[in-house]
Design a protein that fits this description.
Number of strands: 12
CATH class of the domain at 141-347: Alpha Beta
Strand order of the largest sheet: 7-6-5-8-9-12-11
CATH architecture of the domain at 141-347: 3-Layer(aba) Sandwich
CATH topology of the domain at 141-347: Rossmann fold
Structural class: alpha/beta
CATH superfamily of the domain at 141-347: Vaccinia Virus protein VP39
Shape: elongated
Strand content: 15-25%
Distance between the termini: 27 Å
Order of helices and strands: HHEHHEEHHHEHHEHEHEEHEHEHEE
């Protein structure tokens, strides 16, 4: 109970204010999606009710789960841009399309540079024509933009959720142990974990994007070496993390290799989150700890989910009930502390 209260305190004091940031970013994402589909001519075409078949024939879309999700998302919520009646879609004339100047005025200036999300949104029509883009290639191609976005918005969110995740576990349990950092990103996460545990941990960090992994190795050294974190030891060959290019759905480690596994805001980016969970449970020792954070439906923005899924082999968001069930099936009992998805789990003893 005390640990749960600590998590809620972190959420209220750090993630809470970021809740407004999430709402503002959702406004931009919705605008980018609507802007793209408006340029495609979808809203003009739906001035009159049209069937699903008419829509895909008109625009050359392919009948797929993604195409249907795009239309259903436009029909959902209190700000729905489309209305579905008798299996026909039409423009909701009572709801104006998002306006650029209005979104600019209503959102903080720090969010005005979210251009990478506009680029992703512009790929939605191609995805509806079954022309996805490769996730790894995209992040390699757009490296500078990704890292800029990471620093301007995501870093604050990740740091707050990491604080909450560590408030939910006993750090003493992690000291001197082997920890797997899945989806280490640009290195801030690995460095923060290392500094929290004062270097008294054997970290193995993995990521599936070569450019991110290279950056993580470089930035880890830079962050740790320049840190004035009290009590942090010198970085040595013995306490230096190892970094590996690897997918979460195919962990190239023996069974029961790690005492703990950490992942945050990762599983919606992988092609098969259930398989990733099975792999993380497999390499975790009996009685071992898995913890972190994972945003799930319905809190996750449905418009952000569309942007995620323009990439090939990206699953998108799922329900918290699925998350729990997948871990339970993999032999891990999971507790989720907050709507923001801060969780911890313990692998069943063999």
């Amino acid at each position: 109970m005390f640990e749960t209260l600590k998590v809620w305190w972190v959420i209220l004091t750090q993630v809470g204010p970021l809740g407004s940031t999430r709402r503002y970013s959702d406004m931009w994402i919705r605008f980018f999606v609507a802007e793209t589909l408006d340029k495609e001519g979808l809203f003009d075409y739906l001035a009159e009710p049209r069937s699903y078949g008419q829509i895909i024939a008109q625009f050359g879309f392919v009948d797929s789960a993604f195409t249907r999700e795009v239309l259903e998302t436009l029909c959902s919520g209190k700000d729905n841009l489309l209305i579905k009646e008798d299996s026909r879609y039409r423009r909701n004339t009572a709801m104006s399309l998002p306006d650029y100047e209005e979104v600019m005025q209503r959102t903080p200036e720090r969010l005005h540079g979210m251009t990478i999300l506009r680029d992703f949104a512009r790929r939605i029509p191609n995805r509806m024509r079954q022309e996805p883009i490769d996730f790894v290639h995209r992040f390699e191609e757009e490296g500078p933009a990704v890292f800029s976005f990471d620093q301007s918005l995501s870093m604050r969110v990740y740091a707050a959720l990491r604080n909450a995740a560590f408030a939910f576990v006993d750090e003493k349990e992690l000291r001197g142990k082997r920890l797997l950092d899945v989806g280490c990103g640009s290195g801030y996460e690995t460095a923060d974990i290392w500094l929290r545990l004062k270097g008294d941990v054997q970290i193995t960090a993995i990521d599936a994007v070569p450019g991110l992994l290279k950056l993580a190795e470089e930035q880890f050294v830079e962050i740790v070496s320049s840190s004035d974190h009290r009590g942090a030891p010198p970085l040595t060959e013995a306490n230096h993390p190892s970094f590996h290019l690897m997918s979460a759905v195919n962990l190239e480690f023996p069974d029961e290799s790690f005492d703990a596994v950490y992942h945050s805001l990762l599983l919606h980016w992988v092609p098969d989150p259930q398989r990733a969970i099975q792999e993380m449970a497999r390499v975790l020792k009996p009685g071992g700890l898995v913890f972190g954070s994972q945003l799930t439906k319905p809190l996750a923005s449905p418009y952000m989910n569309l942007i995620n899924q323009v990439h090939e082999n990206v699953y998108g968001y799922f329900w918290q009930e699925e998350f729990r069930r997948w871990y339970e099936k993999a032999g891990v009992s999971v507790t989720v502390a907050t709507p923001a998805g801060v969780f911890k789990g313990r692998k069943f003893a063999s």
